[in-house]
Amino acid sequence: MPRAAQVRRLLSGVALLYSAAPVHAETLREALVKAYTTNPTITAQRATLRATDENVPIARASGLPSANATGDYTEFVVTAANSFIALPRQVVARANVSVPLYQGGQVRNSVAAAKTRVEAGRATLRGTEADLFTNVVGAYMDVIRDEAIVGLNTQNVRVLDINLQASRDRFQVGDLTRTDVAQSEARLALARAQLQSAEAQLITSRENYIRFVGTPAGTLDTPPTLPHLPDSPALAVTVAIDNNPVLIAAAKERDATRYDVGVARASRLPQISATGGASYTNYLGSASTTDGSINTFPNANKAVQAGLSLTMPLFQGGRPAAQVRQAEAFQSRAIENVTAAERNVIAQARSAYAVWRSSEQVIQSSETAVNANKLSLEGVRAENSVGTRTILDILNAEQELLNSQVTLVTARRGAFGGRRLIDFQEVAGYEFVGLTNSTALQRHIAQHAARLGMRLRFRARLRDFDAICQMVAADVGMAVVPEAAARRCARSMPIALVRIRDSWANRRLVICSRSFKSLPRPARLLVEHLRAAGCVKP
Fold first, then answer.
1. Of 134, 204, 260, 467, which is the most buried if we count CB atoms within 10 A?
2. How many alpha carbons fall within 13 Å on the CB side of residue 262?
3. In the 8-state DSSP scheme, what is residue 226?
C-alpha cells in the first residue's frame, strides 16, 4: 500500500490535537502503577509469599543445634515418714544441648522443598501480577470502548431526533405520511433505549476500573501500541511456555513434591544426635544440721554429662509407609497439574493470538464499513430528497452506520493500536476543517504550515471547536484543535485523537498586564481563578 494511502486510511475521521492548554489524561502505565501499588489482591499475595519464605528457616532449624535451660524451686511442705534423705527445699538449674548428627535426610529434603516452594511462590506472585495487569488493561479498554459507544449512541439519538422533527414538519405539509412519522418515532425510542443500555454498561466498566485500579477513571489517554508481538501462533506458544508464571509455579511445585517423598521416607530411618547437659542443685542451707551431727549431704552440687542419642524406629503402626504413599500420590498429582497447566497455557496463547489477529482484521474491515456506510447514508438522504427513497431507508442506513461504528470500537478493545503522535508534515496536505482566518490559533497553524512549504486546504471554516469536531465526526476533514476541546467532544462524538509531535504544538499562553491591581474586577477574578486551578503562575 502506498505511503499516502496508509496515512489517509490511518487519519480518516481523526481530530489532531493542538496542545494549547493540555489537560492531563491518565495513561495506561499510570493505571498499572496505581494497581500495582494499591490493589489488595496483589498485596495479599505478597504477604503469602513472605509467609512462604519463612518455611526455609523453619525447615533448616530442625538440623541445627538446640539448647534450652530450665530452673525449678521446690519446697517440701510435708515430708514422707519413710523418706530419710529428702531435704526441706531445693533449687535446681539445668542446661541441655542437642546437636543432630543424622536424621535420614529429613532436614535436607525439607529445606530443599521449602526453597523450591519459595520459587513457586514467586512465580505465583508474578502470575497474580500478570492477571492483575490483564484485568487493568481490560478495564481500561472497556471504559474507552464504552465511552465511545455512549458517544455514538448519543450522536445517533441526536440525529434521529432531528430526523423526527423533520419528518413531522414534512408531514404537516403533506410530504410524508403518518407511517413515516411513526417509523421515525419508533427508531428514536429504540435509539434512546440503546443509549440507556450503553450508559449502564459504561457505569459497570467504570466500577470495574475502580475495583482493579482503586481510583475512578477520569480522562483516559489512548493506549500505546502492543510491543514485541509474535509473528506466528507457534512462536506465541513458545514464548508462553518459557515465561508463563502459572506453568513455572506448577513445575516448581512438582519439584517440591519430590523432596516431600524424601522427607516421608526419612521417618523410617534411625536418628542420631549428640547431647550434653549440666545441672546445679542448691538446698538453700537445708542440708546443714542444727544438733552438731555429721552432715552427709552438701548444700550444693554440680553435674555435667555428654553422650550420643540413637533413635531406632521399630514399629510405628504403618504410619511411615502411609506417609510415603501419600507423598507419592501428591507428587503424581503435581505432575498432572503441570501437564494441565501447559495445555491451558498453549490454549490461551493460541486463543489470544487468534483474537488479536482477528481484531486487527475486524478493525480494517470495520473502518471500510464505516466509510462505506457514511457514503451510503449521504446517498440515501439525497435520493430521499428526490422521492426515490423512503424515511425507513434513511433510518436503516443510519442504524447500519451506527452498528459498523460500534463494531469498530469493540474491535479496538480486543486489539488496541494506533498512533499516539504524528508529525504535522504527514497530514498538512489533506483537507481540514478549522476556525476563521481572523483567529490567532488559525494564523499560528497557517504560519507553521507555510514554514513546511505547504498551504492548508480547508473544506469549511467555523466559529467554535464543537462545530469543528462535529464536522470531523461527519468525515468532512481533519482538524487541529486544543486538546481540552478535542477530549470534551470525543466523549460524545466518534472522533479519534492524535497528538502533534512538532514543538510548536505545545503553546504557552501568557496573561500580561502592567499591574494586577489596575485590572478590572472581572479580569482580576479570572486571573485568581486560573491561579487557584494551577493553570497559571505569576
1. 260
2. 17
3. P
